Amino acid sequence: MIKGFRLISYLEGISYLLILFVTMPLKYMFESPEPNKVIGMAHGLLFLLYIVFAIVVKFEKQWNNKTLAIVLLCSIIPFGTFWMDKKYLTKTQ
């Protein structure tokens, strides 16, 4: 389950950065909303999967609620999923 969560967290982090630094500037500076729609949909799905996987891993690794809250918070902070992977997932393998 950890390997799956690591993959989802990387993909979610990459999609979030693409939205922030690529598709949003395209949408607002160059009036091209199409990439934002595509990447935004993928990011939304990955975000939901991230939350589900985080909850499953919480029970698998017996994280406390504070750790789960930090892991979930990392999904809304740019580069947070990459830090979370280093801090909480690579140690547990």
From TrEMBL:
Bilayer topology annotation: Multi-pass membrane protein
GO CC terms: plasma membrane
Coiled coil: none
Domain DUF3817: 3-88
Keywords: Cell membrane, Membrane, Transmembrane, Transmembrane helix
Transmembrane segments: 7-26, 38-56, 68-84
Stored Pfam families: DUF3817
Highest taxon, organism lineage: Bacteria
Main localization (coarse): membrane
Protein name: Integral membrane protein
Organism listed in the record: Aquimarina spongiae
Organismal lineage: Bacteria, Pseudomonadati, Bacteroidota, Flavobacteriia, Flavobacteriales
